[in-house]
Amino acid sequence: MIALRKATLADVPQIEALIARSARALSADDYRPAQVEGALRGAFGVDTQLLADQTYFLAEEDGRPVGCGGWSYRATLFGGDARGGRDSSKLDPRTQAAKIRAFFVEPCSARRGVGSLLLETCEKEALAHGFSKVELMATLPGVKLYAARGYSSADMVHFEVGHGESIEFVPMRKTLALVAP
User: Fold this and answer.
1) Residue 14 within a domain
2) What are the helix (H) ranges across the chain?
3) Higher local confidence (pLDDT), 124 or 180
4) Is residue 180 part of a domain?
5) Is 181 a member of any domain?
6) How many structural domains are present in the chain?
7) For a Cys staple, 25 with which of 107, 122, 146, 177, CB 3.0–4.6 Å?
């Protein structure tokens, strides 16, 4: 059984390792190795602001990490601590969308509902904090999950990851359904 808990700073080494394994294995059909390695230097990675805000989750099965992901009420859309140009200003839930952030799944646990469980939890939390919309920057392998969960996509964007490389992302949005009490 998969259990979710809020991630802590003590989890950072495990999360970083999980992100690297996930990105390298699950992105192989969509990105070149140089793109993935470039993204691991900033676009992919742990954002400790999410841990401090207690909006980042670790999915565990039998005590071992099998996935991670979170949401944010801050302006930064994606990227770990190593990415420059981050904006930690708080969003207005009446007019702005919460951010779905940094979803990664252990390759051997892919397509077993880990990402969906994390996403559902994050959407519920964002809704409970007054947000009616969410948005994210999807990796190419993640687009199918988000589309299946009701997200609409915009035009693909390219993000520079250094050493002359860029990586493609797809901005996606969703209006959250209000649940009747």
Assistant:
1) yes
2) 12-26, 33-39, 48-52, 114-128, 143-148
3) 124
4) no
5) no
6) 1
7) 107
Range of the domain at 121: 2-175
DSSP 56: E
Helix, strand or coil, per DSSP, at residue 67: strand
Handedness of CA 15, 135, 116, 38 (dihedral sign): negative
pLDDT in tens, 66-95: 999 999 999 988 887 777 677 889 999 999
The tokens describing 93, both together, are: 């839930």
pLDDT tens for residues 144-167? 999 999 999 999 999 999 889 999
* pLDDT of res. 84: 66
Q: Quick count: other Cβ atoms within 10 Å of Cβ 66?
A: 21
- pLDDT at residue 115, rounded to an integer: 95
Amino acid 110 reads A
The helix (run of H) or strand (run of E) holding residue 2 is strand 2-6
Backbone phi and psi for residue 78, each to the nearest 5 degrees, phi listed first: -160, 165
Calculate the alpha carbon distances from 6 to 25, 36, 44, 53, 68 in Å.
25, 26, 19, 10, 10
Q: What is the CATH number of the domain that holds 148?
A: 3.40.630.30
> Residue 150: left (phi > 0), alpha (psi -120 to 50), or beta?
left
